[in-house]
Amino acid sequence: MRYFSYNEYDPDSPRADDTGGYVETLSEEEIRARYWPYWYKKMCEKFGQEHVDKNYCFEDCLVDWQVVNWAWEVKE
Predict the structure, then answer these.
(1) What value does the mean pLDDT take over residues 47-67?
(2) Cβ partners under 8 Å of residue 70, min gap 6
């Protein structure tokens, strides 16, 4: 299982520092559950379901999620 971290902002979070920021870490399964349905729907709207099913997979979604969130893979 892979894990990915990104900087999050929520001043009300118990993990937040003085600025309200903290590092959030999600597993790839959590990303799949939270982001894949949205990403897949938007890709189908843009390119059509047949094209998406033939040319894209979860790894493409994961790369997009990393870019959008400025996330990095946790190697530890």
Answers:
(1) 97
(2) 6, 7
- Asked if 39 contacts 65 with a C-beta cutoff of 8 angstroms, the reply is yes
Q: Where are the beta strands (DSSP E) in the chain?
A: 3-9, 21-27, 72-74
Nearest to 8 by CA among 61, 45, 19: 19
Ramachandran assignment for 34, one of left (phi > 0), alpha (psi -120 to 50 degrees), beta (any other): alpha
Q: For residue 37, what are the contacts with CB-CB under 8 A and spacing of at least 6?
A: none
Q: Dump pLDDT digits (tens) for 11-54.
A: 887 788 877 888 899 999 999 999 999 999 999 999 999 999 99
Q: What would the two tokens of residue 31 be?
A: 């990303």
Neighbours of 3 (CB within 10 A): 17
Query: Which DSSP category does 15 fall into?
Result: T
